[in-house]
From TrEMBL:
It is a multi-pass membrane protein. The keyword Acyltransferase does not apply. GO terms for biological process: GPI anchor biosynthetic process. This is Calcineurin-like phosphoesterase domain-containing protein. It is found in: Membrane. One of its GO terms (cellular component) is endoplasmic reticulum. SUPFAM superfamilies: Metallo-dependent phosphatases (SSF56300). The chain crosses the membrane at residues 357-376, 497-520. InterPro entries: Calcineurin-like_PHP, Metallo-depent_PP-like, PGAP5/Cdc1/Ted1. Its main location: membrane.
Length: 526
């Protein structure tokens, strides 16, 4: 029973460490593993840069996510833990960097265009709670900028037929085409869902007119293009070392009768080239793909880097959710053409939540197996364990005895003896050893043996399993042995089951309150 108690306490400690790391420590580790970007690895981040945290594709789960009714317990559980994970990521791994601005690259919701007003506002409330700034005490009123995504307003073929989704989005998140400045860098936000829409579409014309007003001649500030849908890239383009899934090739679906786009994963080649030629950005940031991708676009005015940022949500097909830290610098001198230090970025990864949950499941299975199969008397009752321990003890005793003999030889007294030829020899003196006080128990004399009177106490007791087997056999009339169920076996099984349940209750009693405390700590606004 003492062995089972030690095992229960050990499992309690293991689960406490696991819960603390999985629910809190993993997010601290993500924070400590990243930093604001600097022009070189050896230098610190410039103090005069504006610091921006970039988040992409939260896609809050709703009734359109898993094909389940909104009242489904499975959907509600998945939505809650996804929201909790994103809130922890934002509050524990992003806001501690104390950014000056926060930028969302679109797809705030999953079924935004298709939700009713009631469900849409409920999702909006969840979004504001997850990405709340109430925990940001030093900078509680930092500006937040939003891009519209296809999961927020749909593609051009949809919102052309349902313009109310555009007005609903703009009422809460503002204009879909606008520009803002950070330091001396201009950030251009465009509604990418409209750019390849129907040629006579009002939304498409409005977006292109806005873009043309931002010609490079109007300002000398470098530009960063922000688009939810990435720019065109050739099929099978390499996305860099941070991508975890295969590259996705170009796919565009058009509605009949030139009613716009019904799906696209990249902007068309013509649209992408026109955007780059009109704006001449030094950097492009995009989302939509849910996985990291870095590509270089060749243009007449030089190469342009595009970073497609992976989703922040662990439920959107990316096992490695991420965010980006971006530093926008001050204005360069008029004669300077070095823009590589003007906007610098660093990709940061969040905890691998799927792996954490798999870890929980594996540890639970190991816990059950240990509790079920752990010997009652500990490892000493395992077959061959006593033999192994005895062997190790004998090896140790042999090594110790050899060392002792060597020491005796070194410490012994020697005398000089001369032979008939006059040669000298060293001979060790004989030392009489006093009899040991405990020699009465193991001394072997010539013709006699001395044994302890209490040796009977150390006789081997029959194992209980042997007694059970003997008691489980009966003799028939013809002398044959017949086996019958043993009540002792049933009793042992019930005792083991009770011990397992008791240990699980103890482990849960200590760790469930810890888990709930961490859960409510992160979910409730302080």
């Amino acid at each position: 029973m003492q062995s089972a108690t030690r095992l229960t306490l050990l499992l309690c400690a293991a689960w406490a460490a696991t819960v603390l790391y999985g629910e809190m420590g993993a997010y601290w580790a993500s924070y400590l593993a990243c930093s604001w970007p600097s022009p070189s690895l050896s230098s610190s981040p410039p103090s005069n840069h504006v610091k921006i945290a970039v988040v992409a594709d939260p896609q809050l789960m709703d009734s359109t996510s898993l094909g389940l009714p909104s009242s489904s317990i499975a959907l509600q559980a998945a939505a809650f833990y996804t929201d909790l994970n994103m809130r922890r990521s934002f509050q524990s791994a992003i806001l501690p960097f104390e950014p000056d601005m926060v930028l969302f690259l679109g797809d705030h919701f999953d079924g935004g265009p298709y939700m009713s007003d009631e469900e849409w506002h409920e999702s909006l409330f969840r979004f504001k709670h997850i990405f709340s700034m109430n925990e940001q005490r030093r900078k509680p009123h930092i500006p937040i900028y939003y891009l519209s995504g296809n999961h927020d307003i749909g593609y051009s073929a949809f919102f052309s037929a349902h313009p109310e989704v555009l007005s609903r989005y703009e009422k809460e998140f503002g204009s879909r085409n606008y520009q803002f400045s950070a330091g001396k860098v201009d950030f251009v936000v465009i509604d990418a869902q409209t750019l390849d829409g129907a040629k006579k579409s009002k939304e498409r014309s409005s977006s292109w007119e806005f873009i043309k007003t931002l010609s490079p001649g109007n300002t000398s500030n470098p530009k960063v293009l922000l688009t939810h849908i990435p720019l065109y890239r050739p099929d099978n383009t390499h996305c860099g070392p941070h991508r975890s899934s295969p590259s996705i090739n170009q796919r565009v679906s058009y509605a009949a009768f030139d009613q716009g786009i019904t799906y696209q994963n990249y902007l068309t080649k013509e649209t992408s080239e026109l955007l780059l030629s009109l704006l001449k950005p030094v950097l492009v940031l995009s989302g939509h793909d849910h996985d990291q991708c870095t590509v270089i676009h060749s243009t007449p005015f030089g190469p342009v880097t595009e970073h497609t940022l992976g989703t922040i949500s662990w439920q959107q097909g990316n096992l490695y959710p991420s965010f980006m830290l971006l530093s926008a610098g001050p204005k360069l001198s008029q004669n300077s053409t070095d823009l590589k230090h003007e906007v610098i970025t660093n990709l940061c990864f969040l905890p691998k939540q799927t792996h954490i949950y798999i870890w929980y499941i594996c540890q639970f299975a190991v816990t059950i197996l240990l509790l079920v199969f752990w010997p009652t008397n500990g490892l000493s009752s395992v077959p061959y364990m006593n033999t192994f321990v005895s062997f190790m003890r004998s090896v140790g005793a042999e090594l110790f005895s050899r060392t002792k003999e060597k020491d005796d030889e070194e410490d012994g007294e020697y005398e000089m003896v001369f032979d008939a030829e006059g040669s000298m020899h060293l001979v060790k003196k004989a030392v009489a050893k006093a009899p040991s006080a405990c020699s009465d128990s193991r001394t072997v004399g010539r013709g006699s043996i001395v044994a302890r009177a209490t040796a009977g106490k150390h006789q081997l007791e029959p194992d209980s399993s042997i007694l059970v087997e003997m008691g489980s056999e009966v003799t028939s009339e013809d002398g044959a042995k017949l086996a019958r169920p043993s009540k002792s076996k049933v009793r042992k099984v019930l005792q083991r089951l009770f011990r397992v349940i008791q240990s699980i209750v103890v482990i849960a009693a200590l760790n469930v309150p810890l888990y709930m405390m961490l859960l409510f700590k992160d979910w409730i606004d302080h």
